[in-house]
Amino acid sequence: MITEEIKLKVRDIVGSENVLESSVDCFGYSYDSSFVPMSADNVPDLVVIPSTTEEIAAVMAIAHEHSIPVTPRGTASGRTGGCIPVQGGISLALHRMTKIIELDERNMMITVEAGVRTVDVYNFCAEKDLFFPPDPASWKYSTIGGNVGENAGGMRAVKYGVTSNYVMGLEVVLADGSIINTGGKAIKNVTGYNLTQLFTGSEGTLGVITKAILRLIPMPKVRNTMQLMFPSLDNACNTIHKMLMSGAVPAAAELMDRISLQAVARHRKLDINPSIEACVVVEIDGESNEDLQKQAAKIDMIANEFEVAEVRIAASQQEVDEIWAIRRGLSSAIGAMAPNRLGEDISVPRDAFPKTVRLIRKIAEKYNLTIAVYGHAGDGNIHPSVLCDLSKPGEEHKVHAAVDEIFDAALSVGGTLSGEHGIGITKRPHIAKALGESGINALKMVKQAFDPKGILNPGKVW
Ligand SMILES: Cc1cc2nc3c(=O)[nH]c(=O)nc-3n(C[C@H](O)[C@H](O)[C@H](O)COP(=O)(O)OP(=O)(O)OC[C@H]3O[C@@H](n4cnc5c(N)ncnc54)[C@H](O)[C@@H]3O)c2cc1C
Questions:
Q1: Average pLDDT, stretch 12-21?
Q2: Ligand 1 proximal residues by C-beta, below 6 Å
Q3: Are 110 and 67 in contact, with CB atoms under 8 Å apart?
Q4: Within this chain, do residues 200 and 257 fall inside the same structural domain, yes or no?
Q5: N or C: which end of the chain has fewer CB within 10 A?
Q6: Coiled-coil ranges per the record (predicted)?
Q7: By three-state DSSP, how is residue 338 classified?
């Protein structure tokens, strides 16, 4: 219960224009990009839109004193309901904290506020020939705070890693309103526990990230894209394995199965041979065109060993854009195939990719559902998309049963429930089978240490 007196204090801190109170205004903060249906139960009592760390600290101190739930929010592109305020209270929306504080070229690091969009960090650095690689497909709108909160991955993870590989330090407001700084610009740093990595991927449950120091690398001088079409899914995966073992490590190796390709073909009015079982989009980068040509020739040779049907090496930026448009437009193309769609995110050892896809196909058959499969095959991260019509009686139950089996399939091949989208609400019922009771108890002990009153993003992860 947030009393008028508390609301007054919060308005004093951030300014009344930065506090939303009406249920209509607050409704917009009750959902994200996940499958979680909109519900009046998830509407926050108050939306607070701070501009500084000090404002956040003061709001947290009040929330702590009165045991009010606080759910941090970037731009709600999350896929697991992470920023949905399931217990009401305050939705703390960080999208106005968009300052790029410092670009330190000599140390190759950038310090930004949590609400800066991923694409803005990329573009800002690119102007100085510096490269911030993490690139979730949502990068045009997802924030750095959200990316750190979820430890977001993306297309280039196969060569460059995920967000956590680039987070050097954080400024964090803790549950009681105190401000701490973790890590920093020193490249080697073993002073105390590695809190930077603990907060990364903590889904807003341990602290509010207000600033991040991010590591950069030199921008590759040249890039190109290849599109490989295979009549066999196994051979598409075999090509990726051999590519990685050969040292021709692509920046990205994305795989789309037949159903995904058909969705794109329909959506973009493309002519794709129906015998094609898998399309692999490969990005290569390097220091010179000669270097690129060598990599492309090696990949071409390997793909031919595995009976590739068609190899396209982009000959112009327009062709690069055309190939990537297929992959980047996949989400909307698949979404257009059915009234509803549940996009999942499992992660398996790379060599289990084809086996997992086959298991998913069996599950689709068992439940008579269409499941499109695509993903970051270079790092074993699969996104099965269950197409459905929730207005049909029994459909929702069927979809959840199928997803349950998809998680079992991932675990059975040595994989896990999420590669990049986190647990949030949607995977919360399943986490016990991945971590076991003692694993969950360990998470609870960490939570208890940072947030003994349980006010930060309650109802998530376990
Ligand atoms: C079309 C589409 C494509 C996507 N592609 C990818 C992809 O390729 N790879 C990938 O990894 N993800 C992807 N995502 C998922 C999503 O974009 C990422 O999880 C993203 O990092 C979330 O950022 P956000 O700013 O929207 O965070 P939100 O959704 O607002 O929040 C996500 C979580 O982070 C917490 N959080 C947010 N800000 C803070 C903060 N400042 N401090 C503490 N906690 C915070 C929230 O409480 C919540 O738990 C995709 C989503 C969509 C819709």
A1: 98
A2: 32-33, 71-79, 82-83, 94, 114, 136-138, 142-143, 145-147, 149-150, 152-154, 203-204, 208-209, 331, 420-421, 457
A3: no
A4: no
A5: N
A6: none
A7: coil
Residue 371 belongs to a domain with what CATH number?
3.30.70.2740
- Whether residue 459 lies inside any domain: the answer is no
Residue 444 has pLDDT above 90, yes or no: yes
The pTM assigned to this predicted structure is: 0.95
User: Are both 80 and 146 inside the same structural domain?
Assistant: no
Triad 6, 94, 149: Cα angle to 5°: 115
Which of these three, 49, 74, 93, is where a domain ends? 93
- Are 85 and 47 within 8 A, CB to CB? no
Contact 296, 224 (CB under 8 A): yes
* Ligand 1 atom with least separation from CA of 207: 43
Instruction: State which residues form the domain around 399.
Output: 339-433
pLDDT (mean) for 251-259: 95
Tell me which of 93, 123, 142 is where a domain ends.
93
Spatial separation of the C-alpha atoms in residues 96 and 161, rounded to whole Å: 28
Q: For residue 278, give the nearest of 293, 291, 262, 267 by alpha carbon.
A: 262
Domain assignment present for 191: yes
Query: 22: which DSSP letter?
Result: S
d(C-alpha 381, C-alpha 415), whole Å: 9
How many domains in the chain? 4
Pairwise CA distance, residues 410 & 346, whole Å: 7
Q: Are residues 177 and 270 in the same domain?
A: no
DSSP string, 163-215: GGGTEEEEEEE-TTS-EEEEE-S-SS--SSS-HHHHHTT-TTSS-EEEEEEEE
Computed over every residue of the chain, the mean pLDDT equals 96
Q: Looking at the domain assignment, is residue 141 inside a domain?
A: yes
Q: Residue 329's pLDDT band (boundaries 50, 70, 90)?
A: confident
State pLDDT tens for residues 344-362: 999 999 989 989 999 999 9
pLDDT at 35 over 90: no
- Is 28 contained in some domain? yes
